[in-house]
Amino acid sequence: MSDAHVLSELIRARAGSAPVRLGLVLGSGLGHLAHAVDGVAIPYADLPGFPHVGVSGHNPNLHVGTLEGVRVAVFGAREHYYESGNPRAMLLPLQVLRALGADRLILTNAAGSLRPDIPPGSVLLLSDHINYSGLNPLIGEQTDARFVPMTDAHDPALRAALQAAAAAQGVDLPEGVYAWYSGPSFETPAEIRMLKTLGADAVGMSTVPEVILARFLGLNVAAISTITNMAAGMSDEKISHAHTKAMAPLGAAKLERILREFLASLR
Ligand code: HPA
């Protein structure tokens, strides 16, 4: 049995064997959403091979149970590339998600905005992304399955369902292109001007490797950013991780309403 199947059996023994329908990865300052899951929380430390997450503001537990009547697996934290230089850090968790039965994944993150009309406190649905890191989590894969098409990687049907949920909740949900910068340093104002020229609407340090891994694993995927700041050079505000964590709850309330409405629509 693969590691993912061993871990999925371990999780079933603790959380029950009903299949999981959907996975949710929570970003910086959003980890508390996981506590709304009616089920069990399994520390990543109990799941060999799961990431050692060291970023403050994250909740390193896998929550398996029901949310709005839908069986979900919520990853309270992700490992970022900048933590250990491994772009494949989320491969095993997503393989486990697949082994638990899920066929869809919603990713969330905190991001900086490049659009003055999408200020801090907004939520942004990713229509597409730019992998500006030059990294790829599939490097080293041996089969032709590694040549993953990335057209419509951000699943149009999932995006439409999330838009419908946002509309039902009266939450504005603009769509835009997210650029992945490796971090952990923030970008320079010159880099942000460049990213704008390249067509990015938001910038962050996560999500893109997970979108690639999800498509590799056959998961339909969509991603939502909570905007915590204007990107470097776009406002007088000082950018910091403390600021990201302080601002994340603003968008998190909107995100939670969208996700709950979306899940209720799957019942
Ligand atoms: N840049 C990169 N990552 C981020 C930002 C940013 O401005 N804000 C929150 N995460």
Q: Helix count, per DSSP?
A: 7
From the N-terminal CA to the C-terminal CA, the straight-line distance is 32 Å
Give the name of the CATH architecture: 3-Layer(aba) Sandwich
Widest sheet: strand order? 5-8-7-6-9
What is the overall silhouette? Answer: globular
Q: What is the CATH class? A: Alpha Beta
**Most strands sheet:** 5 strands, mixed, barrel
> Uncertain spans, ≥5 residues at pLDDT below 50?
none
By secondary-structure content and strand pairing, the structural class works out as: alpha/beta
Average of per-residue pLDDT values: 94
CATH topology: Rossmann fold
Describe the fold and architecture.
- This protein has 267 residues and is an alpha/beta fold.
- It has one domain: Nucleoside phosphorylase domain (Rossmann fold, 3-Layer(aba) Sandwich).
- Helices cover 31% and strands 23% of the residues.
- It has helices at 3-15, 81-84, 91-99, 156-169, 189-197, 208-216, 241-266; strands at residues 22-25, 38-43, 61-67, 70-75, 104-113, 123-130, 175-180, 202-204, 220-230.
- Strands 5-8-7-6-9 form a five-stranded mixed β-barrel.
- A hairpin with a 2-residue loop joins strand 3 and strand 4 (70-75).
- It starts with a helix and ends with a helix.
- The mean pLDDT is 94.
- The structure holds hypoxanthine (HPA).
- Hypoxanthine is lined by residues 110-112, 181, 186-187, 203-205, 228-229, 231, 239, 244.
